[in-house]
């Protein structure tokens, strides 16, 4: 099963790409709620390159690494990767006037309901939008 989340960011695609891919920005937006944070991010953005982002509860009760290997990267247009658990993710960046549409499609995992997964990924995407627009 595939799930899609999307948003439109009021920033040019070049800036959106930098905010999405540079670790110094990833640590500021890659979490689903305000009681979580991202203490670590590493990103080798190229085909065969690896990424790793640590998401953690601010109270220290739980953390996990979100990691995978890039299978396709087309600057300012497309990112595809395979997560450590084998699921595939496809992210498209499309310029829209003064903004950028981001469409992210991922294979659902089987432990949590699809709606919960969609809500979590959408919350992270919403945090990204907020970060990108505040810093553009």
TrEMBL record:
SUPFAM superfamilies named in the record: Bet v1-like
Stored CDD domains: SRPBCC_CalC_Aha1-like_4
Protein name (record): Uncharacterized protein YndB with AHSA1/START domain
Lineage: Bacteria, Pseudomonadati, Bacteroidota, Sphingobacteriia, Sphingobacteriales
Domain called Activator of Hsp90 ATPase homologue 1/2-like C-terminal: residue spans: 11-132
Similarity field: Belongs to the AHA1 family.
Record InterPro entries: ASHA1/2-like_C, START-like_dom_sf
Pfam families (UniProt xref): AHSA1
